[in-house]
Amino acid sequence: MKRIFLFVLTNLAVLALLRVVLFIVENVFGVHLMQGGTGGLLVFAAIFGFGGSLISLALSKWTAKRMMGVRVIESPQSELERWLVGAVNRLAEQAHVGMPEVGIFEAEEMNAFATGARRNAALVAVSSGLLRNMSRTQVEAVLGHEITHVANGDMVTLALLQGVLNTFVIFLARIIGGIVDRAILRNDRQGSGIGFFLTTIVAQFVLGIVASVIVCWYSRRREFRADRGGADLTGTGNMIDALQMLKRSQGVPMPQQLQAFGINTGRSNGIMRLFMSHPPLDERIAALKT
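RESULT FIELD:
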């Protein structure tokens, strides 16, 4: 599932850790957190569900810089860097957002991404391969796409969506676990039995996959909106030219955890399309032509 991105992976890891902690607290120390019934369970699920998502959001810019080796341009050292910073500043003003940090990461693949917890304190980074292979009008279109992500608050919206889905995954998995443990396995003890524990793990895994499909569907929708925003900022023809150029990109792709942030991703067929964070480039180009 190559298109399950940073938020999903981080949230699953956080939720798995919290699930282990909860099991230890309840079964080793005998402390049951769900004495408040389904209302208490829902509150608990919301706290832990949104916790993982908001942690991911808060760390997104820091994580992206480390994973991609982004060199933030604090003082431009060349004419190209001055142009890049100026282009981002101009587009940010057009989109009415604060000036993002601007960075470059070394990669042969033509790619770029935007991330950050706040629309006025974001990071926009482009690959060295993109700067070498695209014309400046095409680079500006890519930057317009990324700035539109920032202006639309896509990172925050995605985090909130993930938080809502995490909440229901935790809530429903425990409800299903309780039903199986008591109604099917006939466990009459006051505490939770092994049936509850095992069923909850399985249910959380299955529901987590469903949640990932929903998140990826939303991510694909936001890419169409960002393409349209890039077209509005820099011209539809320039945006189409940039997307067509991305189809020629070669080199090592961005890490799987960050592919949802990038403008360019690989191809998937069959059921794996459900887990694509980006629509195919041909579909994105066709959407701009209509």
